[in-house]
Amino acid sequence: MDSQKEALQRIISTLASKNDEIQNFIDTLNQTLKGVQENSSNILSELDEEFDSLYSILDEVKESMVNSIKQEQARKSQELQSQLSQCNNALENSEELLEFATRSLDIKEPEEFSKLSLDSPSGGVGQLLMTGVIIAARINS
């Protein structure tokens, strides 16, 4: 029986030693798990901060680009409005010139035609033709 007790004592001692090893391993796993959780939490926080910073930068770039586009749109719109106004004025002048020239063709008497040339607000037929050329050039430019 003594030998059995000795064997049982060795088994108990070995089992207690293995339990201590297992407990130490469990403690190591718990510390590792805690470290992984803390590291993951820190990395996620840093990632959130990085993306918040990137979103902020992107918003600034977007705002700058939107402002540039709006300024370019305003500049081009103003330029086109100016050209539109010039074309409308040229068309109006051309229509008046066309009406005057058409009326001039209806004159049958040479003296009346000559008088029209001298009395016309545009300075005569030669001036009338020159004005027509200038208006046509403005419309084409």
Question: What do you see in this structure?
Answer:
Helices cover 92% and strands 0% of the residues. α1 runs antiparallel to α3. The model has no long low-confidence stretch (mean pLDDT 86).
Quick recap:
By secondary structure, the protein is an all-alpha fold.
Beta-strand proportion: under 5%
Mean pLDDT: 86
Unreliable runs = none
What's the helix count? 3
Quick tags:
141 residues, single chain, mainly alpha
Task: Annotate the secondary structure layout.
Layout: H1 2-105, H2 110-119, H3 125-140
